[in-house]
Automatic annotation (TrEMBL):
Name used for this protein in its record: Metallophosphoesterase family protein
Enzyme class, broadest EC rank: hydrolase
Pfam family, any one: Metallophos
GO MF annotations in UniProt: hydrolase activity
Domain Calcineurin-like phosphoesterase: 1-236
UniProt-listed InterPro entries: Calcineurin-like_PHP (IPR004843), Metallo-depent_PP-like (IPR029052), Pantetheine_PDE (IPR052963)
E.C. numbers: 3.1.-.-
Keywords: Hydrolase
Amino acid sequence: MKLLAVSDLHVAYEENRTITDGLRPESADDWLIVAGDVGETASDIEWALGLLRERFAKVIWVPGNHELWTPKDDPVQLRGVERYEYLVEMCRRLDVVTPEDDYPIWPGEGGPAVIAPLFLLYDYTFRPEGTSNKEEALAKAHAAGVVCTDEYFLHPDPYPSREAWCEARVELTEKRLSALPPELPTVLINHWPMVREPTRVMYYPEFAQWCGTVLTADWHLRFRSACSVYGHLHIPRTTHYDDVRFEEVSVGYPREWKKWGRTDGWLRQILPVKP
Ligand SMILES: [Fe+2]
Ligand SMILES: [Fe+2]
């Protein structure tokens, strides 16, 4: 029985759809974490999560920024919180665990551990050097020509801004994590990295402001994280911060995984810990 993870399937790309269609558990008891950016349209997201749920004993999903877009060609035109809630309802129908459900406890080797799917968003605090607020950070991104598409498609309604939505998510999530039994370790799952360090290797440092929040910088320590699982950066790798393992588990766009010569090994083992 293994806890496996993947993210950034981006199934709108035909070749990524083929990869998704090829994902299989090693045993019928395996669980799968899907850490966001499955796709953009409701039907693509439902196709992928439904397929994976048929194969894995449990599927745990968190939204990425792409799921939260309102694309012009999607018959589902819900925005912001309403769109998120629509996706949560879809997951309930599919029997997929979301950040709105009770956190499951991993019963296999490496446990017991609380598997905590989180939806925290970002708040423009991973700012580029030489900037001290959101306006300056955004201006620098515009000047560099590196502006995240979220600015046009990820609507925060009814919140006044994406950072206000982030702040609300952080507040309610912090309460839930604080109420967990203190003897249990956690696997924290969030589409965006919960510490800033992973963004330091990004080709465009201006893009980091769409990648997380400084509010969670010590959560891997405070909440006894055995592993912190994320995606979004499309830089798959394993790193350690404060001796805690962080796993970036993305597939990414075809041009990216082809460049790195990846053809398999899409699923990362989270638990039990590989020797
Ligand atoms: Fe992505
Ligand atoms: Fe993303």
